[in-house]
Amino acid sequence: MSNPENQEKIEINSSPLLKVINELHLKYKSLTEGTLANYIPELAKVNPDLFSICIVTVDGQIYEVGDSQQLFTIQSISKVFAYGLALEDHGRDYVLTRVGVEPTGEAFNAIILDEQSKRPYNPMVNAGAIATTSLIKGAGATERLNRLLDMFRRYIGHDVFVDISVFTSERSTGHRNRAMAHLMLNFGMINQNIEEALDLYFQQCAVMMNCRDLAVMAATLANRGANPITGEQAVDKRYIKDILSVMYTCGMYNFAGEWAYKIGIPAKSGVCGGIMAVVPHQMGIAVFSPPLDSRGNSVRGVKVCEELSQRLGLHLFDCSGSQI
Ligand code: GLU
Q1: Active-site residue 169, yes or no?
Q2: CATH H superfamily, domain 14-74+208-312
Q3: Range 154-183 average pLDDT
Q4: Do 282 and 2 touch, CB atoms closer than 8 A?
Q5: Is 237 a catalytic residue?
Q6: Measuring CA to CA, how many Å separate 220 from each of 40, 91, 154, 223, 279?
Q7: Among 63, 95, 257, 272, which residue's beta carbon has the most beta carbons within 10 A?
């Protein structure tokens, strides 16, 4: 839990949040480093100048700046939520037999499994996410997809759709993910029909949202699983600690350790250029800016979160207080 001293300052003084994100948007707009993800052909077509920041507090206040209505596919950020659904479907003990909770220090798409257990290392890397998605219950592909989409609806408060072009683009080029699924089938880590599991994984990655939706989802996790706008319980609150723990240790690809050290809050990024961060019991933060660094994290997104964490005193282990 964050420092109560910081929490009090932010609650009393919530309007400065808008001022801070406006300043950060202006400051980092001119930062044009990074490259678009191009291994999924459709993602390479995105406008690299798009940039938005949004904060949603657990009492439902929304602060946003930039292209916050622009839709994009959430890619890896979906892994967090699919993990929550798999936990609800099977419980912690069973899910742990299929997917570990150990950071890899490797790239998100590394083809590695734990030597002894043959489990993928964690649900935030591709192998672990494919195994997680294969656990989602449903009588057939359509029901499984509908359960996933309905889960996203609870988190953001309105219906979501899959971007068919991005889904098809990844489905026809995702050979690496297909290879991982075959490896896991070989070791009995996936039982389901592989193509169906992969399709569902590619579909969850191609779910479209905007920056505000992403911040509402983060705020829902910050708010013990209850959407702060609609009040609906999106996920069983028993699993919030599981979800936030793996986000904290594994959510930012092979930058996760440095992120935890410097920024100090659970987060997840995606190759779409989105980053979602959770300040437990306080707020959800989302940044969208497509150009990525060499590890696959949004360049502007990392900078914005780093400065937000410093200025608002968000690091979970920081005792020095907010600077606004
Ligand atoms: N759909 C992407 C993949 O499986 C997601 C990767 C990501 O955002 O990290 O490669």
Answers
A1: no
A2: DD-peptidase/beta-lactamase superfamily (3.40.710.10)
A3: 96
A4: yes
A5: no
A6: 29, 20, 9, 5, 10
A7: 272
> Domain locations in the chain?
14-74+208-312, 76-205
- Residue 271 known to be catalytic: yes
Residue among 238, 231, 236, 204 nearest 216 (CA): 231
CA atoms within 13 A on the CB side of 13: 14
Q: Is 128 in the pocket of ligand 1 (CB under 6 A)?
A: no
pLDDT band per the 50, 70, 90 thresholds, residue 323:
low
Crossing angle for the helix pair 194-205 and 164-173, to the nearest 10 degrees: 130
Atom of ligand 1 lying closest to residue 39 CA: 10
β-bridge partners, 57: 283
- Which atom of ligand 1 is nearest the CA belonging to 271? 8
Q: Looking at domain 76-205, which of 3.20.20.140, 1.10.10.10, 3.40.710.10, 3.40.50.720 is its CATH number?
A: 3.40.710.10
Catalytic residue among 9, 79, 99, 278: 79
